[in-house]
Amino acid sequence: MEKENRHEEWYFQSDYDLETAFDMFKSGRYVYCIFMCHLSLEKVLKGLLVKSKGEFPSKSHSLIYFVEKIELKMDDSYYEFLFTLNKISVPTRYPENLRKLVAEYSKERTENFLKRTKEIQSWIKQQ
After folding, report:
1. In the 8-state DSSP scheme, what is residue 97?
2. Which of 1, 17, 25 is closest to 121 using CA atoms?
3. Contact 121/18 with Cβ under 8 angstroms?
4. Are 70 and 48 in contact (CB under 8 A)?
């Protein structure tokens, strides 16, 4: 893959993960939907890092780390969403009590995360 197009692979993977999040939502696997939302945003941010700075991203999973590394200026509501998603990504990745976690993510709450993820992912790709 040509160096100037490497970000496109990250964007492709981000889209793929977002589609997976929608599939997890449809199947009622809300915890995995949230996890895939985080993964989608992580990859789109890594793609933007490659595109804007020409740097290969670290193996970090922190959305906030990548926002700061890119020096991405965004609406406060987007930043707060990323902060929240970042905070809940560890329990969705490594749940201590899956039953409790499943109870925390209703269809409505998860759908909100999914819609916001799609909106923010689209915005990041336009930067």
Report:
1. -
2. 17
3. yes
4. yes
pTM above 0.85, yes or no: yes
Q: What does the pLDDT look like over 5-17, one tens digit per residue?
A: 889 999 999 999 9
The domain defined by 3-125 folds into Four Helix Bundle (Hemerythrin (Met), subunit A) (1.20.120)
Domain boundaries, the chain: 3-125
Tokens 């995995």 belong to 32
- 3-class DSSP string for 9-44: HHHHHHHHHHHHHHHHHHCCCHHHHHHHHHHHHHHH
Quick one: tokens of 120? 């923010």
Find how far residue 17's CA is from the centre of its chain.
9
pLDDT at 31: 95
DSSP letter string over 84-107? HHHHHHHHHHS-S-HHHHHHH--H
Length, in residues, of the chain: 127
> HSE-up of 23 (CA within 13 Å, CB side)?
7
Spatial separation of the C-alpha atoms in residues 18 and 40, rounded to whole Å:
6
